[in-house]
């Protein structure tokens, strides 16, 4: 004779539902983060494709990292 507990199935089912809700929330957060990262990366790439000088004007030379490194004197190891 076997003894069946009907609550065990409900416990497993609720655990699966809870896990899927948590997983869904993680997937949504990851998708949002990836979208923000992609927009920032594409914007950064577009400044070099279009030309930073045309977008930002003469101030572009102050924004470019290697020019900042030259001004601070920390680019000596680059060659």
How would you explain this protein's 3D organization?
- The protein has 79 residues and is mostly helical.
- It has one domain.
- Helices cover 78% and strands 0% of the residues.
- The chain has 4 helices and no strands.
- It has helices at residues 6-50, 52-56, 60-63, 65-72.
- The N and C termini lie far apart (83 Å).
- The mean pLDDT is 76.
Quickly describe the structure:
Helix content is 78%, strand content 0%.
Q: Runs with pLDDT <50, length 5+?
A: none
Instruction: Give the biggest beta sheet.
Output: none
Helix content: over 70%
Strand content: under 5%
Please, how many domains? Answer: 1
- Per DSSP, the total helix count is 4
Structural class: mainly alpha
Mean pLDDT: 76
Rg, Cα atoms, Å = 27 Å
Topology:
Blueprint: H1 6-50, H2 52-56, H3 60-63, H4 65-72
List the main descriptive attributes of the protein structure presented here.
79 residues, 4 helices, 78% helix
